[in-house]
Amino acid sequence: MKKRFFIANWKMQKTFNESIAFAQKHAHGLTQLATHENNQIVLCPSFPALYSMRNMLNETNIAIGAQNVSRHPSGAYTGQVCAQSLKEAGCTYCIIGHSESRKYQKETTVDIEHKCKELIKQHITPIICIGESKLAFESGQTYQVLSEQLQPILETIATANHDIPCYLIAYEPIWAIGSGVIPEKAYIKDVFAWLHQQCSNNSDTPFHLLYGGSVNHENASAILSINYINGLLIGGASLTFDSFNAIINQK
Ligand code: PGA
Question: Which is catalytic among the residues 98, 114, 118, 132?
Fold first, then answer.
């Protein structure tokens, strides 16, 4: 059975107290979810909760991920968090290139390449988000946009001097995030066949492809049945244990 990743991207939707309360209240349920050897569950709270959640879930197979990282290793960068700190706090995964970070922090592909390098240096598995806007989708430019976002990252990974167990590419059409709308199955299928080919041609580093954008327990099973999709990046539906659980245990 193929390995499946379930990444909970909590964005800025839970405070420190709420994140800790979630981990406390659902420790048993989360542990149960993570016992299936093919499931890798990664919880991504905001920065302050990373270390405490790691400690609380230490005995489980649940991994903790950050939602972003600085492109710099250290220095006078007020407000930023470096990859080494994430590593020391117990993170083994980190999301980069999320469309919300590209938009609100004005992150460029060059920034994301640097972030990827920093994570690789610390042996943190990068979860690299890519996706096209509604306009690009409607004007048939999906592959051009995805290529521009993906190629520099693939090059970074191919030329990295450090090993990572794998990297994850999360395809998240921007127009599907938080909108309740997901692309047609045939469209998703084509995108993932293309992504698989791009990544396979790149390097020997193992990779896994994830879909994100309005995933819920009703559509998860159909999405996961698509060739080359190895997991889901889940925003809104990861915020309650019941909906997250329902996605992972979909029929
Ligand atoms: P959503 O968010 O599941 O709420 O659409 C996904 C994401 O932004 O990663």
Answer: 98
